[in-house]
């Protein structure tokens, strides 16, 4: 493609440095397509320009194209090995692919060149947390905050790690600090965490910001679970779901199936033989990247399940929702949306965390919700469904703790 054609006559006379400066202005302002065209124009004239390669990789990462981002930024680093920002963004792109160990190496390389980068220390901490190395993550967040005490994201990340460690007082302090410093997306996550810790009232659902951050750190864990017969014993939710569906689908084939909250596609291999069309929707671009690598889905959409269903563009014979309704406190609205998306005599199969001791629902240490099974049955029946199957068991091990789950199958 001739990217000069995408530019005005004045832009086509720019020097390389002027083009870089203008591209960065567009990039900073969020005009990614304009920035991308200029980076491509620069590379047509100088294919080995490390800054253009790096920043074009950053635009790819921001668009969720992490494989392309890794390739472009790797080229920049081959030309300029001491490029600190490129090492950091290389780590973020690898993190987006769920390759946490490689991301850690990239962040460490960035810090070897520029040890006083608060952002890179925080990014390294997030990758370490995602690998379960909580104490090492905490050390990195503290280093970030020594460098920049007003770094809201480092306070937030530290709060998450302290909450995982069981340090309630320390976590509360971190999240309250976020509320003092942050007016953007991190506020919702901090408020939700404070609700779990008993400081604020519980919201109606898990904030999208919280979920995106959480699943970014968990992609590595899910990737390690594998798919098919090699899945880890740390996650048994797929077994609950697959056994229930074997009964519910009764040998039916050629179905339109929605894997609502497909994550890394861990159920894809089980669902594919039943499906003439298998769609997946998930809020986490990092999780979807792993699912995309499996090549099992006809369509993969980066969206929140309720919003996707509200579009009403597709009807399904089966909707599968594995550990997705844990993001909702009350279930009436999401059940109604699933009802509308199902054909007559359609099947809804869902797993969630259960707690017989709570009234209807309760926030769990993970930051998600558990539900009383009686409440789930009641909402299903009130929504018009018929309950045809229910089974309970260990859903997964989360931070070495057994999480009790249940599978429910409803028929329309």
Structural overview:
The protein has 412 residues and is of the alpha/beta class. The chain folds into two domains: 1-115, Tetratricopeptide repeat domain (Serine Threonine Protein Phosphatase 5, Tetratricopeptide repeat, Alpha Horseshoe), CATH 1.25.40; 217-411, 3-Layer(aba) Sandwich (Rossmann fold). 53% of the residues lie in helices and 17% in strands. The chain is built from 18 helices and nine strands. The protein has helices spanning 16-28, 32-45, 50-62, 66-79, 84-96, 100-113, 118-130, 134-147, 152-165, 168-181, 186-196, 208-225, 237-249, 268-271, 285-294, 305-310, 332-341, 373-382; strands spanning 255-260, 275-282, 299-302, 316-322, 342-354, 361-363, 369-371, 386-398, 401-411. Strands 1, 2, 3, 4, 5, 6, 7, 8 and 9 form a nine-stranded mixed sheet that branches. The relative contact order is 0.07. Mean pLDDT is 89; it is low at 1-5 and 227-231.
In short:
Helices cover 53% and strands 17% of the residues.
Keyphrases for this structure?
2 domains, Rossmann fold, 53% helix, Serine Threonine Protein Phosphatase 5, Tetratricopeptide repeat, alpha/beta, 412 residues
């Amino acid at each position: 493609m001739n990217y000069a054609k995408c530019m005005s006559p004045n832009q086509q006379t720019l020097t390389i440095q002027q083009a870089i400066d203008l591209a960065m202005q567009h990039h900073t302002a969020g005009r990614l397509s304009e920035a991308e065209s200029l980076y491509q124009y620069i590379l047509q004239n100088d294919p080995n320009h490390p800054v253009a390669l790096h920043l074009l990789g950053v635009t790819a990462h921001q668009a969720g194209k992490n494989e392309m981002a890794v390739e472009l930024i790797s080229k920049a680093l081959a030309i300029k090995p001491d490029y600190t920002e490129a090492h950091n963004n290389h780590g973020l792109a690898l993190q987006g692919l769920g390759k946490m160990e490689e991301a850690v190496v990239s962040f460490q390389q960035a810090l070897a060149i520029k040890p006083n980068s608060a952002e890179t220390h925080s990014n390294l901490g997030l990758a370490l947390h995602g690998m379960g190395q909580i104490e090492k993550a905490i050390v990195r967040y503290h280093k970030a905050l020594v460098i920049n005490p007003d770094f809201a994201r480092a306070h937030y990340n530290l709060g998450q790690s302290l909450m995982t460690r069981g340090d309630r007082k320390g976590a509360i302090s971190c999240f309250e600090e976020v509320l003092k410093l942050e007016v953007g997306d991190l506020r919702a996550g901090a408020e939700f965490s404070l609700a779990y810790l008993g400081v604020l009232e519980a919201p109606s659902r898990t904030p999208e910001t919280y979920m995106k951050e959480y699943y970014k750190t968990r992609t590595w864990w899910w990737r390690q679970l594998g798919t098919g017969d090699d899945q880890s014993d740390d996650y048994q939710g797929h077994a609950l779901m697959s056994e229930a569906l074997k009964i519910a689908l009764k040998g039916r084939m050629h179905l339109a199936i929605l894997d609502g909250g497909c994550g890394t596609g861990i159920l894809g291999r089980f669902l594919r033989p039943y499906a003439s069309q298998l769609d997946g929707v998930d809020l986490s671009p990092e999780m979807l990247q792993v699912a995309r690598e499996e090549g099992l889905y006809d369509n993969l959409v980066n969206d929140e399940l309720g919003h996707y269903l509200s579009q009403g563009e597709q009807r399904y014979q089966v909707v599968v929702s594995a550990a997705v309704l844990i993001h909702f406190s009350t279930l009436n609205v999401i059940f109604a949306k699933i009802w509308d998306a199902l054909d007559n005599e359609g099947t809804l199969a869902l797993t969630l965390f259960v707690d017989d001791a709570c009234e209807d629902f309760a926030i769990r240490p993970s930051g998600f919700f558990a539900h009383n099974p009686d409440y789930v049955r009641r909402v299903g029946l009130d929504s018009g469904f018929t309950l045809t199957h229910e089974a309970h068991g260990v859903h997964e091990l989360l931070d070495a703790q057994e999480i009790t789950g249940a599978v429910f199958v409803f028929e329309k």
